[in-house]
Amino acid sequence: MPINRFGERGPIPHRSDRLYCSSGDWYFAIRRGIDQGPYDTREQAEAALKLFIQDQLAFEDSLRVACG
Questions:
Q1: Is 43 among the domain residues?
Q2: Gap between the Cα atoms of 23 and 21, Å rounded
Q3: Does the residue 42 lie in any domain?
Q4: Count of domains observed in the chain
């Protein structure tokens, strides 16, 4: 069951899945940049997406530390 994100109120807006299959290959969409892939399986794409998010969060944390 979908739930509101932090700070959201009211009806939950439509959100598309970041993972998708095209011509038998799996990809994940990101907001800034080109879609990532191809991956052989959905599981590989999910793992790559999780790693991508972890890397982005680590980068943002490093900026906070550097900028005080």
A1: yes
A2: 7
A3: yes
A4: 1
Is residue 21 helix, strand or coil?
strand
Residue 60 lies in a domain: yes
Q: Which H/E stretch holds residue 37?
A: strand 36-39
C-alpha distances (whole Å) from 33 to each of 23, 25, 30, 50, 60 are 21, 19, 6, 16, 17
In Å, what is the CA distance from 10 to each residue of 3, 4, 25, 39, 58?
A: 10, 8, 36, 36, 31
Single-letter residue type at 7: G
Contact, 26 vs 52, CB < 8 A? Answer: no
pLDDT digits (tens, 9 = 90+) for 5-64: 788 888 877 667 899 999 999 999 998 899 999 999 999 999 999 999 999 999 988 888
> 58, 23, 25: which is closest to 44 by C-alpha?
25
